[in-house]
Amino acid sequence: MTTLTTAPIAPLLERLFAEADEASPMNDPAFADITEDEHSRLMRSKTEYRELYDRLKAYPLAVSRETGALLYMLARSIRATTIIEFGTSFGLSTLHLAAALRDNGGGRLITTEFEASKTQRARQNLIAGGVEDLVEIREGDALQTLASDLPDQIDLVLLDGAKALYPEILALLESRLKPGALIIADNADYAPDYLGRVRSPMAGYVSVPFAEDVELSMRL
User: Fold this and answer.
1) pLDDT score, position 16
2) How confident is the model at residue 30 (pLDDT cuts 50, 70, 90)?
3) What is the pTM of this model?
């Protein structure tokens, strides 16, 4: 029996994942005019990504069920008590991480999201899941919200916001990553600069691609 597999979080996640499946932007005619090349360009751009995410603000953009379970398992396995999340969206990944904190005996999860409507939805979901006491949602540009007032040591980081900013977000957090800290980067194939950094033999990480679109790195 764990927080993740029992009420209220287990049925809440089932409902949220079902809603996310039905609300895929791929089914929205409004995105029919975005070609694959244009989508890739916007995902990789350090200046134009806001245009894409503004058009996606009504969508949950959730991690997969498998990635959610992975987040919980990794946070439990290292007994994480301090977690940073870049990209809250509707809070599905946040629920998995907060459940791990609860089962680890408590802790602090700082998550950041620049879209106000999404922070409101995420907060409602965290309250429904009974883990709001473990989570601090910072609304705004993560380059500012994560620039100060961070834990002295960070156990785990989830990168799942604007992919082009992954290197900059990592740089903000790097000095506080404890040895053995884990960094999970979702859709990292859109962040070649980030991959080049964490895969470099001289950068102080061990890093491997995991599953279909996740990069798993450990701070040495």
Assistant:
1) 96
2) low
3) 0.92
Tell me the angle at which helices 166-173 and 192-199 cross, rounded to the nearest 10 degrees.
Answer: 40
- Taking CA atoms, 123 is separated from 59, 139, 208, in Å, by 16, 11, 32
What tens digit of pLDDT does each residue of 46-82 get?
776 677 677 777 777 789 999 999 999 999 999 999 9
Between 28 and 184, residue with greater pLDDT: 184
Rg (CA), the chain: 16
Determine the number of helices (DSSP H) and then strands (DSSP E) in the chain. Answer: 9, 7
Query: Which residues, listed in sequence order, are joined to residue 185 by a DSSP beta bridge?
Result: 159, 215
CA distances from 93 to 99, 114, 198 (A): 10, 16, 22
Dist. CA 19–CA 23, nearest whole Å: 6
CB burial readout 110-145, b (16+ within 10 A) else e: bbbbbbeebbebbbebbebbbbbebbebbbeebbeb
Q: Residue 126 and residue 128: Cα distance in Å, rounded?
A: 5
Instruction: Answer for the pair 16, 125: CB distance below 8 angstroms, yes or no.
Output: yes
Backbone angles phi, psi at 105, to 5 degrees: 105, 5
**Is 109 within 8 Å of 136 (Cβ atoms)?**
yes
